[in-house]
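One example copied in:
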Amino acid sequence: MWLGTAAIVLAMGGTATAASMVTSAQIKDGTITAKDIKRGAIGLTQLSSTARDGIQGEPGLTGPSGPAGPAGPAGPSAVGQINYVRSQRVYWNGTYVQSAMATCPAGQRAISGGGVSVGDAGMAASDTVASRSGWYVIGGMSYQGNTTAYVEAFAICAPTAYAVAASTDKTVAADKAAIARLVKRYEASISCTSAKIGGAKKCIARGQFCAIRNQKDYKRHGFTCRQDKAGRYRLS
């Protein structure tokens, strides 16, 4: 009889316990917070993989540096790829100012340059063109009768990848137009007198070298050929 009573009590107790259990469906989202959960009650194995990935621990100590890697191969040298180019000789042909331009090979840009002006008025300009594709010079001549005087330009060129200020948005056509404008500007700046000296047509100005044998021709146009302190004859 006692056993039967105990079984009934246990059965009733089991039924009462099942009836008082709370399921997840009965818990409103956000009502249970961290303070409601006993410390250590939930382990990492009970968390989802997303939750485990989101947990960040304290930063670890910095590891030792790794060994240095091997030295890389030497880069290519541009020395053997530098080119020296010259323009054609441009002779004076009835003008007082003339220009020449040395153009670099395709894919190269001017890194330096210069030129010569075989004319008695000297060199008026020597510079790289705006596109960096070459070098130009402008020279002057005081008289038109000389058929042997000329200007000539040269450029030192390097591959675009090695050249300083290797390229611009300018073109060769724009360069030539700019040089033509400089020539006209220089022509306009020359202050000289057209005269026939020694049988040749010249543009004479004070300070130019002169030949004493043509003194009468100079005086006819208001000039005098005098010897300076260095022993050279110049117009005054």
Notes: The helical segments are 2-20, 49-54, 172-189, 215-220.
